[in-house]
Design goal:
By secondary structure, the chain is α+β, with helices and mostly antiparallel strands. The chain has a domain at about 20-65. Helices cover about 35% and strands about 20% of the residues. It is built from 2 helices and 4 strands. It has helices spanning about 20-35, 50-55, and strands at about 10, 15, 40, 60-65. The chain has a two-stranded antiparallel ribbon with strand order 1-2. Strands 3-4 form a two-stranded parallel sheet. The protein is globular, with a radius of gyration of 15 Å.
Length: about 70
Amino acid sequence: MCCADCFAAWGYVGHGVSPNVQHWVDEAKAMATRNSTRIIVSRSHAGHVKEVVEASLGSDANVEPAGGAGL
């Protein structure tokens, strides 16, 4: 039996996201427009985070690589 708060969500690169999470995407884009969004990511796990963030939230979003404890 599924709980009342359970739902399925998906995102597919180049195609979008499921309708039940689109409002989160829209809100993130609006926040990036209102203020400069700052995303902190581990240097060792950054991958293509900057490109994905800029494509998703715009070039005003700031991705900051951060050092970690090495754990």
